[in-house]
Amino acid sequence: MLERVAVHQTRLRTPGLGLDARGVALGSKGLVLLPSIDRLVAFLALYTRQGSLSDILRSLAIEVVRSKLGAREVTLTFAAETSDRMDRVSEIARLAGGYTFTGTSRHFVQYRDAAAPFGYDVAQISAGDAVLWLYHNAFSQSYDVERKVDVRSLILRLEPHADPSSGREPGPRWLCAEAGLGPALIHYFVRSGVDAEVGVAEWPPASSFDDGPVVRYLFRAPALPERMMPLLTRTPGLGMFVPAAPGAAVEAGFRHPVNLRACPVFSESGLVLFRGHGQEPLEISKLPALGDVRAFARMELRKDVAAATGVALPPKPVAVALRLVPTLEPWRAVTATWVAAEDLPVLRRIAYALGPESLRSARVAFTEHGAIVRHPTGIEGIPVGQFFREIHRGLYVPAGYDVVPAVAPDVLYRSLGSPAGQVLFIGREGSVVGVPEEAFVPLETAVLEAQAWIPAGTDKFTSALVTALATELPEVTLGGVGLRPLRDVTEGADVPALPGGAGSGG
């Protein structure tokens, strides 16, 4: 019989059992006892439906154990870590028809339930050489390990269930075709304009009577038209698979019992194709080289015209000149202005009114025809010069004009044949001027002229300072007027007239 753990109890008899921060009896490991393999599959399906198996996969160990009476059961052992994880596992195990235990090495005691909120402890430890001892309110049993079960091998052995709704939603698809159907499917995709990649995968011979490996064509398509679904799903020797997880896909119309996306046991560099109808899955350890199906399109060479007719006639030219015509469309992407040489003083005056952000973002290049200013967000803050709008990266046309013939901007850019690193400006008369990209510098570094300054400590600075200090300053003194204030004035000297025209008489 088991004893309930009381509040603030400190001593426990089960080896390796302790109390966590909430006072729950917890060992370093958790254990789930399930009666059969199908109950194990049910447990994994329920667990992966609510969360990922990656949190316990590193410490997970599945074993088939046998009791003294010869009954075989399945145990699932993992790192307990916290009581929150154990609570979730206990609920899922109860739903799958199993029991949950906690312990450390060989002895595991029943995990807590509603009758014992803080868990259980054993009244007496059983003696014996068994590998595993489980203590429950209803039983106490010893087990020996018969064999281990690999999670990946178990998932590969599970047969997908029929699910008509699987594969109806749009999305990427994998297709596997037998060797005889591969070339026909390639040409079918090419004629239908379907974007897909194709590769050739090999498997070992099915029996010793086969001379070579089994070869199948593997297709990867980002999307498939709805009209192709009946053909791709009902043709013998052709299978369509829906990606279920990185490195795994399930045949359309079937569903794997376990959520494969929550079981990271497959390599992303390979691929496992789970087939229905009781067929074995196709496992590819490493994906083959995939190429575009359009590379396999049927090619036909033209006949030599000169050999057929005896005379080679040159084609008549149909090229037309490039022109610009005014347009009534609103201005868009006006990001450059061409300032003529005579308007450069106006640009200098505008530079005093520009903000720091405009000075940092704008870039300018000086040519013999004037200055070109570019601003990525708009050139409206510099209202001088002829405005240009950018129709292609590195290609500008005057604002308010359109190019005729009305070809695409990338076609126009290629036809101009400009080398890399050139910014092209098309004038109103149709001329094209190229400016190197490296010629454009930030406006803030080009707008301010160099300022003269004298470094302290130089001879020029010292001589200027000595000259200034040697200059005598005039002195002004005040004294008394005395009895004769006009003694210094000689007779006959010019006396300035007083205001108002008064004479010198008293």
Tell me the overall shape. flat
Number of helices: 12
The strand count comes to 31
User: Whole-number average pLDDT?
Assistant: 84
Distance between the termini: 146 Å
Low-confidence stretches: 305-310, 496-506
Order of strands in the sheet with most strands: 20-19-17-16-13-15-14-21
Largest sheet: 8 strands, mixed
Radius of gyration: 46 Å
| Helical fraction | 10-25%
Strand-residue proportion: 25-35%
Structural classification: alpha+beta
The total domain count is: 3
How would you portray this structure in words?
This protein is of the alpha+beta class. The chain has three domains: 2-149, no CATH class; 159-295, no CATH class; 323-446, no CATH class. Helices cover 20% and strands 29% of the residues. The protein is built from twelve helices and 31 strands. An eight-stranded mixed sheet has the order 20-19-17-16-13-15-14-21. Strands 30-29-27-26-23-25-24-31 form an eight-stranded mixed sheet. Strands 4-6-5-11-10-8-7 form a seven-stranded mixed beta barrel. A hairpin with a 2-residue loop joins β16 (238-245) and β17. Residues 305-310 and 496-506 have low confidence and may be disordered.
Note the topology.
Elements: E1 2-4, E2 18-19, E3 25-26, E4 29-34, H1 37-50, H2 54-57, E5 61-67, E6 72-79, H3 83-95, E7 99-103, E8 107-110, E9 120-122, E10 132-135, E11 140-149, H4 151-157, E12 161-162, E13 173-178, H5 182-192, E14 197-203, E15 214-221, H6 229-234, E16 238-245, E17 248-251, E18 254-255, E19 271-274, E20 282-284, E21 291-292, H7 305-309, E22 323-326, E23 334-340, H8 344-353, H9 356-361, E24 363-367, E25 370-374, E26 386-392, E27 395-398, E28 401-404, H10 409-416, E29 422-426, E30 432-436, E31 441-442, H11 443-446, H12 459-470
Parallel strand pairs: 8-10, 17-19, 27-29
Antiparallel strand pairs: 1-9, 2-3, 4-6, 4-7, 5-6, 5-11, 7-8, 10-11, 12-18, 13-15, 13-16, 14-15, 14-21, 16-17, 19-20, 22-28, 23-25, 23-26, 24-25, 24-31, 26-27, 29-30
